[in-house]
Here is the input.
Amino acid sequence: MKKISLYLYKKACILGLPLFRGRRVEADLARLYPGERVEYVKTQYYVKKLSLTLTVLLVGLLLGLTVRWNAVRSAILEEEGAVLRGDLEAEQLWLEADDGESRRTFLVEVSPREPTEQEAAALLESFLQNITARVLNGNEDFEHITGDLALQETYEGYPLEVIWESSREDIIDGRGRVGSVEAPVALELRARAICKDLERTEVIPVTVRPKESSEEKDYLELKELLLETERENREKEVWKLPAQWKGKGLEWSLRKKDHSLLIWAAAPLVALLLYLSADRDLHGELEKKRKRLEREYPELAYRLLLYVGAGMTVRRAFLKIGGDYEKKRQQGAVEKPGCAQVLYTCRELQGGVSEGAAYEHFGRRTGSRDYIRLGTVLCQNLRRGNGALLERLREEVDRSSGENLQRVKKLGEEAGTKLLAPMALMLAVVMIVIMVPAFGTLG
Here is the structure.
């Protein structure tokens, strides 16, 4: 992927595309990687960002293809419209019927083979408490019944028998088929749940309302035919779907939820967001480095004051600080951006750059006011002599120490503010733990 990204980056640069150009990005990279060639660092950054983007696109494409392939593979029925009951395990199927003139979609719940008496269990209370969701069969509620109800003798997960009785058999029969009405009709459904020697009865008030269209009537009739064949074949391993309806041939297909298009649409969006957020992350990394430079400055200024006060020249003090930092880094010490800038300045001094120019570069590379001011002080010392250098360094140490103390206090206040939300959440949890048992005792 890295080679592909490098190839695309080179092509984009040759064509002059503005996709890989940005002054702010180049400035941030120059500050983060001082001394490195800008073009090299820039190429590495954009190739890495492009590699991540292409990886997300590739993963999204493969994931979408996998989901699509599973959906297509599972959407194949057996020959002559047969469904293997043993493979379904009481799941809901979306079936599409094509009679040559129109296609209709049905949501059908296919039950597994009947369990033995030994496998049955007494679940009457649970069934009656959840009877609403199992009976409505797509209707809004019992006050707005327009389609057939799922009045079955058995239900998934409940090894018991249910006998349905209606106060108006001409409106709703024992199988849940709803007749046509011209005005709302109120009636009652009685459910007798029987399991072994136990029997419970539940009375449900129902209001049947007029159906909307003849198309819905055809839909309900075909669905009833589908459910009828399902019930008749429950003891068989294979459920044979209806092949004819009203003199028309039916072609069945299994419709599965296919989220491949969603994945294919989301992958480019995620990749684009990652690509655009990379520049913000780069700036955030530079901001973190700036804060570390500010925290490190008082210690660096104090060490410089200590060495110069002991009789060292500024050049030797820089070489001493840079040399100590280099040895510690070789031993696995934590990186310090301020000392790293000092070490880079030592490299410039050893490479023949004049002291004045090296101290000016030292301040500019960091972009921090403190380091720029320190570089200016050192340059002025070269022009005017060493008389006031110690005094100026003491002022820098005192000022930077005071600012650092204020900065630490501010961070402490911010941390206390951020802790308010977790503390409030913990207080709520404690109150719940105390009050719930108390109310339970009073009840």
